[in-house]
Amino acid sequence: MKTITLNNGIEMPVLGYGVFHVSPEECERCVADAIHTGYRLIDTAQAYYNEEGVGNAIVRLDVPREELFITTKVWISNAGEEKAARSIDESLRKLRTDYIDLLLVHQPFGDYYGTYRAMQKAYREGKVRAIGLSNFYGARFVDLTENMEVKPAVLQVEAHVFAQQTVMRETIAPYGTRLMAWGPLAQGADNLFKDETLRGIGAKYGKSNAQVALKFLTDEGIIAIPKSMHKERMKENFEIFDFELTEEDRRAIHRLDTGKLKVDHNDPVLAKFLLDYDKNFNPSN
Fold this sequence. Notes:
Elements: E1 3-5, E2 11-13, E3 16-18, H1 24-37, E4 41-43, H2 51-60, E5 69-74, H3 81-95, E6 102-105, H4 112-125, E7 131-134, H5 138-146, E8 154-158, H6 166-172, E9 178-182, H7 196-205, H8 209-219, E10 223-224, H9 231-238, H10 247-254, H11 268-275, H12 277-281
Parallel strand pairs: 3-4, 4-5, 5-6, 6-7, 7-8, 8-9, 9-10
Antiparallel strand pairs: 1-2
Organism: Bacteroides finegoldii
Keywords: NADP, Oxidoreductase
Domain NADP-dependent oxidoreductase: 22-256
């Protein structure tokens, strides 16, 4: 598995498996299938309500813990130094592990300064190997980063061939922060699976549009975490390291970039939705 080096020297797989919108009931099976396929990076979050499924898969499979790279995220309802600290311990319990490889602030809302301070403490205590941010853009990323001692190792944001995050990559580069893409296949929108540019490139290598798109991102040094609940699709998404894109291929894919994101984190309607998320989506309610 190809890896990248984070700003604290930790090696992280550049391709992983994400479990957003994977039900708690299905999560253990899906994560087990992904690990059997060869994935070692698994991305979950407190707000996905499936950390326990990830943990169950980890402990029942014959894969050494040190070979896995587990990412989770602190949710808004656990924001603030004390609440975040308690939630980190709860995530460790649910994931059935002594440490989390990468811990992110999930959203730029609530007391995310307090959350990040709790994460710095967990990092120093060895509960977490690296910390970072998710969905922080522009000024909010810079403001928090400049005011914290431990610089974010990773920034996870929406990124795919139609939104290649050129500006954010330039913004985070001085801090050594690496970009991680959620929705790396544009969630199937914008006709990614039918796009003629990707199809033409893939035809040369016997690869699908999805494989070409994921190959492009990882070649750019962007960590990608595609999701599928089907083992054959997991396998297809994983098989991207046996071919090389040419410079001409890359230029053609760069031209697909519109810079338009599907989710606007400056939208007050979205902010209200996320602040109320637990009330509407917690399966235990």
